[in-house]
Design a protein that fits this description.
Blueprint: H1 3-11, E1 23-25, H2 27-33, E2 36-41, H3 51-60, H4 64-69, E3 71-74, H5 78-89, E4 94-98, H6 104-114, E5 118-122, H7 127-141, E6 144-145, H8 152-168, E7 175-179, H9 184-196, E8 201-207, H10 212-219, H11 242-251, E9 254-258, H12 260-274, H13 284-296, E10 302-307, H14 316-327, E11 331-339, H15 344-351, E12 357-366, E13 369-377, H16 382-394, E14 398-401, H17 406-415, E15 427-434, H18 439-447, E16 452-459, E17 465-473, H19 479-488, E18 493-495, H20 500-505
Parallel strand pairs: 2-10, 3-4, 3-6, 4-5, 7-8, 7-10, 8-9
Antiparallel strand pairs: 1-2, 11-13, 11-14, 12-13, 15-17, 15-18, 16-17
Helix pairs in contact: 1-8, 1-9, 3-5, 3-8, 5-6, 8-9, 9-11, 12-13, 12-14
Length: 508
């Protein structure tokens, strides 16, 4: 079907720098899912990511004249490190442009791997900004641009993982789950495995916040997502590559998307079985495998997930530890309204008896009622969730499930406190700010003191972007000016004024 790619993959000389990574069994998860679950450990690759394979193969195939002019790349992390090590090994000068928001650990690692052969430039807040700068450097210098995924040589380099899977899996292999960002990894592995194992199903896995392949398959052509989430930054791509999409249409059997919470749960499951910590994009395929098994009720099959990398900030683990319980449905967040009278709080705790309380925030509401923000462990998942809600409603209590409410999980649980008087005008917004010095000053400067900030909550989660909740008060009739300001501000925002969590805990 794709014979030219098979030849490229089999002749790829990636092992000058790359290593053949193992496939590990996951016994605990296998038992829990009643399937044999395997993990292809690209987190153990040199540079802790699969990206080295494609980068080295691309640069190794350049002519002597091209190598002399050097290479240029744009990346927020893993691709940069792969290009840096490849350039140093092949004695080729490299310029790598990284967003200013790139965590220092990735910038420092890129410099260390590349040594004197690599120049790192920090430019812009987003990957697109860095990519534009990198392409401009190529035009000026005549250097070769090393694309992170939309290049046949990059795809062939990643395809060597498929060769290893075929060699290492001597028995049945029913399904392979592959994470998708720009699509180079999916295309390379998928093309090879479909050639040698046509009966093995290729399942693409995407983050719900960056599902560019799913959108393209639905539209029948590549589309650009209007917004991309940044938790799984290794797959935060707005449009799948042109060549990866062409190949994906031929080799992908199914596609599954997962939430951030489900990714956190997969990071925990991976740690339980292997004692290794995957980055969010690295655990994406495993999250998809778990969800797919549960949705399709698969039994007694051999399933393999690609662990694509382990380059994550230590700070991000706090977010993971807070969210994995909701992701695996063993924890839930509720808003419960009780009467403001003696003994009602004790009665509530007695009603919740038998369930482990993970979080409990109490806030007086009015002389007649109070709202409780509570987290509970659910050993039996959805069964326990229904049991709790039915039990409390039979007692006449109002209860709302906030487990899927992003604002509640990111902000409200940490800031239940003072409220604005009912007659005061306020609009509440959730923003994503790039994690860099001076961004708040830029925000305030653009506001030009037109509105009062009545609420502000920021919590760092170790990513390239920060989650910020802001309340703004303005004069009556200023809605048009506020909408113009929000349109001008270049980063994503969502209005949360009418969010149920906001209404219960932050407003009168």
């Amino acid at each position: 079907m794709q014979e030219p790619y098979i030849k490229r993959i089999l002749s790829a000389q990636v092992y000058d720098v790359a290593v053949e990574t193992p496939i590990d069994a996951m016994p605990a998860l296998s038992q829990a899912l009643n399937n044999q679950v395997l993990s292809k450990r690209e987190d153990l690759q040199t540079g802790f990511s699969f990206k080295l394979r494609g980068a080295y193969h691309k640069i190794s195939r350049l002519s002597p004249a091209q190598r002399k002019r050097g290479v240029v790349a744009a990346s927020a992390g893993n691709h940069a490190q792969g290009v840096a090590l490849s350039a140093r090994t092949l004695r080729t000068a490299a310029t790598i442009v990284m967003p200013v928001t790139t965590p220092a650990i990735k910038v420092d690692s890129t410099k260390a791997l590349g040594g004197k052969a690599v120049r790192v430039i920090l430019h812009g807040d987003r990957f697109d900004d860095a990519c534009d700068r990198a392409l401009a450097i190529c035009r000026q210098s005549g250097a070769t641009f090393v694309h992170p995924y939309d290049d046949p040589d990059i795809i062939a380099g990643q395809g060597t993982i498929g060769v290893e899977i075929q060699r290492q899996c001597t028995g049945a292999l029913d399904k392979v789950f592959i994470p998708v960002g720009g699509g180079g990894l999916l295309a390379g592995i998928g093309v090879y495995l479909k050639y040698v194992r046509p009966d093995t199903k290729i399942i693409a896995v995407e983050c719900e916040e960056s599902a560019c392949l799913k959108a393209a398959l639905k539209a029948g052509k590549r589309v650009t997502l209007p917004h991309v989430g940044i938790f799984a930054d290794g797959v935060a791509v707005a449009q799948i590559g042109k060549e990866p999409f062409r190949l994906a249409c031929k080799v992908v059997d199914d596609c599954v998307t997962v939430s951030n919470d489900e990714i956190c749960a997969a990071i925990k499951k991976n740690f339980d079985d292997t004692r290794s910590i995957a980055e969010p994009a690295g655990a994406l395929a495993l999250a998809g495998l778990i969800k797919y098994v549960q949705r399709k009720r698969l039994r007694r099959q051999t399933l393999l997930a690609i662990n694509s990398g382990a380059n994550t900030n230590f700070d991000r683990l706090r977010y993971v530890s807070e969210r994995y319980g909701i992701g695996q449905q063993t924890e839930a967040m509720f808003a419960i309204t009780i009467a403001e009278s003696a003994g009602t709080l004790l009665s509530l705790c007695q009603t919740l008896g038998g369930f482990d309380i993970t979080e409990f925030n109490y806030r007086w509401h009015d002389p007649k009622s109070a709202n409780i923000f509570v987290g509970l462990k659910l050993p039996h998942g959805g069964q326990d969730r229904r049991k709790i809600m039915q039990k409390l409603r039979r007692r006449g209590l109002k209860i709302q499930d906030l487990s899927g409410n992003e604002m509640a999980k990111l902000h409200v649980g940490y800031m239940i406190g003072g409220r604005l008087a009912a007659h005061q005008d306020e609009r509440i917004f959730r923003f994503e700010f790039p994690e860099r010095p001076g961004i708040l000053q830029e925000f305030l400067t653009m506001m030009r003191s037109r509105w009062n900030i009545s609420l502000f909550h920021y919590r760092q989660h170790g990513g390239t972007y920060a989650n910020v909740l802001i309340g703004l008060q303005g004069l009556p009739g200023q809605d048009h000016a506020m909408e113009a300001f929000l349109e001008e501000w270049p980063y994503p925002h969502w209005e949360e004024t009418n969010n149920v969590a906001c209404r219960l805990f932050l407003r009168s």
